[in-house]
Amino acid sequence: MLAAFLLVLREGFEATLLIAILLAYVVKIGHAESKRAIWYGVAVAAGLSVIAGAAMFFAASSLQGNASEIFKGATMWFAVGVLTYMVLWMRRQSRTIAADLRHGVDEAMETGSTFALAALTFVMVFREGLESALFMFSITHTSAPLQVALGSIAGLAGAVGLGYVVYVGGRRLNLGAFFKVTGLLLLVVAAGLFAHGMAMFQFASLVPAVYYPLWDLSGVAALTSQSYLGQFLIAFFGWDPKPDLLEFGVWAAYVVVVGYLFLRPPKLATRTSAQTAEATN
């Protein structure tokens, strides 16, 4: 439930943040009538995201045996790749994203086409919606469907609330701190999905199994999937009470490598350009 909440909160807030920036800017430049085009783009993007999510679940349900395991594992790894790129990209671009969006709106206004503004909104929101659908599909295989649904609803409500705060409060919300904290937590979730994907490939005999258990806590009921604590650890950290060497190895490698890329200080050139862009806003 917490993993679903965090994923939808992060993805949903990115979408609502972008929408809030667009709405505030078109009003600021005297084109309040263009808000309708923005909402058209949001509606189409949301609808297609739902369809894409339903298609993934339908495709998975139609597969059996090893094909099903391979599809699930590949989807998990693809979700990890998208999630990693998204977190690292937002870590670098969070300071300049508002300026980039305003530039895009200015270009759309210059053409005089409401379609251009709707298309700009659609591309941004559909990207977030497609990512959310992909992540929900992946974590459904590590959490109970009801918990995923409740976490998603709570995350969406939180995202809308945060987006409204940005819209009416401007810069009062520390976006840098928000993206850094949620980014770290999402990378932990991604590491778990990466390990679960490897387990799926092992079950399907696509990857040679390395059954060398590092520890065995399967006898501790509180740490298995039969308990709420165990379900939380599995969904959020990719916990396995009896992990093999390969499964734990890919989890640890992801945490170390991607964690370093996320936490390392930005390069001087990147920092300078970000500060310059922020000063011009």
Structural class: mainly alpha
Largest sheet: none
Contiguous runs where pLDDT drops below 50 for at least 5 residues: 268-274, 276-281
* Average pLDDT rating: 79
Helix fraction, binned, reads over 70%
Looking at the structure, what is the overall shape? Answer: elongated
Total count of strands: 0
What separation lies between the terminal Cα atoms? 38 Å
Compute the CA-based radius of gyration: 21 Å
Order of helices and strands: HHHHHHHHHH
Measured by DSSP, the beta-strand proportion falls in under 5%
User: Helical element count?
Assistant: 10
Overall tally of structural domains: 1
Tag the structure with descriptive keywords.
281 residues, 10 helices, disordered C terminus, mainly alpha, 79% helix
Summarize the helices and strands and which ones pair or pack:
Blueprint: H1 2-28, H2 35-61, H3 65-93, H4 97-111, H5 114-140, H6 145-169, H7 175-203, H8 228-237, H9 245-263, H10 268-280
Helix pairs in contact: 1-4, 1-5, 1-6, 1-7, 2-5, 3-5, 3-7, 4-5, 7-8, 7-9
What does this structure look like?
By secondary structure, the chain is mainly α. The protein has one domain. It is built from ten helices and no strands. It has helices at residues 2-28, 35-61, 65-93, 97-111, 114-140, 145-169, 175-203, 228-237, 245-263, 268-280. Helix 1 runs antiparallel to helix 5 (114-140), helix 3 (65-93) runs antiparallel to helix 7 and helix 4 (97-111) packs across helix 5. The chain is elongated and about 65 Å long. The chain starts with a helix and ends with a helix. Mean pLDDT is 79; it is low at 268-274 and 276-281.
